[in-house]
Design brief:
By secondary structure, this protein is α+β, with helices and mostly antiparallel strands. Helix content is 21%, strand content 34%. The strands form two sheets. Strands 5, 6, 7, 8 and 9 form a five-stranded mixed sheet that branches. A hairpin with a 5-residue loop joins strand 8 and strand 9 (122-128).
Length: 134
């Protein structure tokens, strides 16, 4: 198919507060795609999340912006290297002002835990022991 990167676009109410929140978790921003209307979170070399002020986000769609505090359109799921890393990232998110979205789930071969960012977007961190998956 040739897809090389993913840019997840998320509307935010206060870009500065959102940047502060994600910085506290440990994410960095690409300054080339960050200004007063948007901030590009670098998740890794191929995955990015664009935080767009609602006015800018609205330029990309004719639909209404969902109220993410009341409904869910997407869950951003990120795979990490260990159960400890799942806990570390979610705990940082909670300390930065996020809220727990689910309780920790341990299925033996997979471990996950979710949080809501300050705009209500759902982020799920998971570790999967791929050697245990048949």
């Amino acid at each position: 198919m040739g897809v090389q990167k993913i840019f997840v676009n998320l509307p935010v109410k206060d870009l500065d507060k959102s940047k502060e929140f994600f910085s506290k978790i440990g994410f960095e921003f690409n300054p080339q795609f960050t200004n007063e209307l948007a901030a590009c979170i670098v998740i890794n070399d191929s995955i990015y999340a664009m935080l767009l002020v609602e006015k800018r986000f609205k330029e990309f769609t004719k639909k209404e912006i969902a109220d993410s505090t009341k409904s869910t359109e997407v869950i951003i799921a990120l795979s990490v290297d260990s159960k400890e890393q799942v806990d570390e990232i979610v705990n940082k998110a909670l300390e930065a002002g996020g809220t727990a979205a689910t309780d920790k789930q341990d299925y033996g071969f997979m471990y996950q835990w979710s949080f809501q960012d300050i705009d209500g977007h759902l982020w799920e961190l998971l570790y999967m022991d791929e050697s245990a998956v048949q």
